[in-house]
Every structure is written in C-alpha cells, then in structure tokens.
Write a structure and sequence with these properties.
By secondary structure, this protein is α/β, with parallel strands linked by helices. The protein has a single domain, classed as Rossmann fold (3-Layer(aba) Sandwich). Helices cover 35% and strands 14% of the residues. It has a 4-stranded parallel beta sheet. The radius of gyration is 17 Å and the shape is globular. The termini are far apart.
Length: 241
C-alpha cells in the first residue's frame, strides 16, 4: 500500500513519479507531492453536527440529530469527516471497489488534522477498524476501514488492533434497510476473538456512518469483553433522517 507509514519516503517518491497520483474526488492527476486537487474535497462536516454521532444537523440550533434523540447508542460519541454527498460517494466507491487504496493516505491525514481534537479527547488506547467478513475480504482484497485506521495511526501514533474482533458471518447489503432491520441483520455478526481486552478506551474506524447500527453492534461486543468507553470516527456520514 502507498503511504509513508507503509514504505520508505524514497520508495514513495519513486512510486509517485512512475505512477502519478489521482485526486480522490475528481480523478484527475494531481501535482507531484499533492494528495488531491486544490479545489476538491471540501465537503467537510462543519460545526453544526450532532453532539452524539457527528452527523450534519438539519437545523443549526439543534444539539442532536433525530436519530440520536430516539436511539440509545452503545458508543459514547462519534465524529465523521465528510458529508456523504455525490462527490464523496464516488470517491468512496473507487476506494472500496476499484482498488484505489492510496486514497487512504488523504483520508487518514484529513481525519487526523480536522478531527484531531476529538481523537485526542477520547484518550484512546487503540483504533479498531470495523472488520469485513472473510468472503468480502477475499473478494475485495483488503478492508477499507483497516486502511483508513492505519493511515490515522501513522499521523496520531495510536496503534491499530485488528485481532480483537472479527466478522463471524457475511451479511447482505444494508443500504435500503431501516435501523431495526439493520440491527436484526447484524445480530451475531461480530465476535470477540480475544476476551482479554487491554484497550479500555477504543475508537472504532469505518468508512460510512448511517444509522449507527454497525457501530452499536461492534461497540456492544467490545464492552461485553471489557472495553470501558467506545468512540468512533467515520470517513463520511449521511444527512439525518
């Protein structure tokens, strides 16, 4: 994988010369040494976000989105970097399904810089990427959440822990499912491998936050195994419903 945390600086420079980077948002070749075009990737979630899950708020005077006002989440708090609009959606599709692993360099850098205060405040012992099922991991060749977590780790120094929890069974896509249907779909999908959880404060890392059902399922398992506080960071979050 590309990135300073995975290879030496010299090999990175050689690789970038031979295979110029493309902007994760417009897919154009970027200037040497840049991770994106100057005018792209400005879909950041601003100050008007839910204090629980980090989703952009419909009304700036609100403190919580309607999802969080009506749901008791297993996690303490979470933040997301981008609004899940068309530009960000296209970027994530290329990242997940078309082998653009190098996008993780920019994603992790942006998360570490723009959500750094939140991450620091979590006092996390480790980062835990949401695991993929064995089938998805084999088909895709990599776990996109793991790549993002490793990139964040490279900028923050917080270690990544991937051997603690696994996805014990494959779950069908949940795009069109309600939160209740998602929770039913995820029941028993995650399994703690090591019951001696040394990470007391944990940050879960994923690409997209929607209803929070995945975060809740992972957080519940971690707390059952001994984690005290569970937070999350996500690359993007959809608008509140």
């Amino acid at each position: 994988m590309r990135g300073g945390y995975a290879r030496s600086r010299i090999s990175d420079l050689i690789f970038d010369i031979l295979f110029p980077r493309r902007c994760p948002f417009c897919d154009s070749v970027v200037k040497f040494g840049e991770l994106k075009c100057r005018g792209c990737g400005r879909s950041y979630i601003g100050e008007g976000h839910c204090l629980k899950c980090g989703k952009p708020l419909l009304r700036p005077d609100d403190e919580y989105c309607r999802d969080c006002m009506n749901t008791d989440h297993e996690f303490e708090r979470g933040r997301a970097l981008y609004v899940y609009n068309d530009e960000v959606r296209a970027s994530i599709i290329r990242f997940k399904y078309h082998g653009r692993r190098e996008y993780a360099d920019l994603y992790g850098k942006d998360i570490a810089e723009r959500l750094g205060r939140f991450i620091c405040g979590c006092r996390a012992d480790c980062l835990i990427p949401v695991p993929l099922s064995e089938k998805k991991q084999k088909d895709r060749g990599y776990n996109q959440a793991s790549l993002i977590a490793k990139s964040i780790s490279g900028y923050t120094g917080i270690p990544v822990e991937e051997g603690m929890i696994i996805r014990s069974r494959h779950t069908p896509p949940m795009k069109e499912l309600s939160r209740t249907e998602r929770m039913k779909n995820l029941k028993g999908a995650f399994k703690i491998v090591s019951h001696d959880v040394k990470c007391r404060n944990v940050i879960i890392v994923d690409d997209i936050y929607t209803t929070g059902s995945t975060m809740d399922a992972v957080a519940a398992e971690l707390k059952e195994a001994g984690a005290e506080k569970v937070f999350f960071v996500a690359l993007a979050a959809g608008a509140p419903v």
